[in-house]
């Protein structure tokens, strides 16, 4: 070890130089080296440093080889030669000597080079001293510094891991953090194992690298002779500091680890709420033993991991409970609706303990070929919101199935929610679709607008005039819900969703709706695949709100495809309009090849039109359609502005009314009533050859 920065010595002029008594007191020996004569003079203390007797030394430097091993001598000569050649005044170096008893020790020398007037080196004067204690102290300081740095790094890794574990919401999240680049591998471990306690056994849930687990240890009993079982039983960590200790204490396990070249291991109990929930093992292939500081760091790491695992398991249990309760409130099955493809999806909020009030429903409506679609969201994220949602879904379904108009369904649902013992309100959108005609009537109570995807792949938002949210409209006495009408062509898809799919913090709702429309337009045609894509988007966004989604795609009806349609407006008090309607129906029926039933169709249509004009104060709209499919049918619809439903009753012997619906029921193959905005439509169908 060279020391080129040795300070210059105060040199005596006479030779050999007389040692300073202070040097002797400090166990330093002196030397005087005559370069011309090749003589190397040493004082008594220098002999002691070299462990030589005066009679064993002849004054020549070569004789010191008995104490200075050749490698050390060569290195020392190189230091002196370099100092002489480059004009240095002094040099310094550490070198080892071999003592008389065969041991070795460190020695330090400092020399001052004397030159003549020409610069030629003539003499070297210096000291030698025993440096064993000095270097031992220096080495210990270096080791201590290295240990402190390693402890600091390990502490930093534990802090990073603990910070990452704070965001873990599942057991797999915890495992992923530990296997991450900032995980336990930065602690120097070559392999990781982790097991959880389940029903008196330890089930392995993580091992790394992949495939490094020991066969037969996927599930082990707590009383088996394995280190993880031991730390779970004793609640104390187990530090294995050598392969020999591992082999002796765990002879069953050790043979399976020999290929991993394990040299030491640390097994930590994972304790939460004063009970063991699992164990973790860190296996090393490049170290033996653990300092007190390292053990403390690893114990702290185990405690942090245990708390994170407990939180994750509780979170998973709460999430499972929330999802189970939510699913119990939602429809168990979605009915098959002829003429439509329907897909529904639900995603619970990112917060595991929250139970949302989002819901969807599909309601077959009376009259055939009609279906109601509902999407809604009760305020709040708790069990109360879910309970209110369940009640509201049932009553809304009942009102719709009774045949009430969309506006009446929404108004009655609002009154029901207002009369409940709750302070919650709800947003909702209700759509009634006639799949034969494609006419969709929608009412909106504070909910976001629906979207429609067309056959050409374009998708747009459908503005629906809305009213107050359910519960609030009854409270403020504003139960009017305007009805918007949309015609859904075959192949078009109607999308209803809750705001969790589009609302993001810091994002404008209109921008989010446009982005959603673009995503839908680029998505697959099949509604289930499209629903899956949209719900994956919600998962990726990871919002803290529930998402309910309903897609309805109208198919080209196989059993009822309209090939002709005629409409006629009939005003009250206008006999010519009534006559024109009759002639229109009679001519169309004959033109469409149903001459055999023309009279029946005309009679029934006349009866329906007359009832509409007599029992309502407004006009009537007559629609005649020819439908093709497995059988050919003619469909008549008479619309009016009254929501009062017609009642079939028996007429007395002297009665002049009450026979109209009996006549319709007798002549038509099927008939019914359906809501149309603020009014209704009475319809009937005739099968024709």
Which SSEs are present, and which pair or pack?
Blueprint: H1 21-25, E1 28-34, E2 39-42, H2 44-50, H3 70-85, E3 90-98, E4 104-115, E5 121-130, H4 132-165, H5 171-179, E6 191-198, E7 201-208, E8 219-221, H6 227-234, E9 238-240, H7 243-249, E10 264-272, E11 275-284, H8 292-329, E12 340-347, E13 356-364, E14 370-381, H9 383-401, H10 406-419, E15 426-434, E16 439-445, E17 451-453, E18 459-461, E19 466-467, H11 472-475, E20 484-487, E21 493-497, H12 509-522, H13 527-541, E22 547-554, E23 561-570, H14 575-591, H15 598-615, E24 620-628, E25 632-640, H16 660-667, E26 670-676, E27 679-688
Parallel strand pairs: 16-19
Antiparallel strand pairs: 1-2, 1-5, 3-4, 4-5, 6-7, 6-11, 7-8, 9-10, 10-11, 12-22, 13-14, 14-15, 15-16, 16-20, 17-18, 17-21, 21-22, 23-24, 24-25, 25-27, 26-27
Helix pairs in contact: 4-8, 9-10, 14-15, 15-16
Please summarize what this structure is.
This protein is α+β, with helices and mostly antiparallel strands. Residues 4-11 have low confidence and may be disordered.
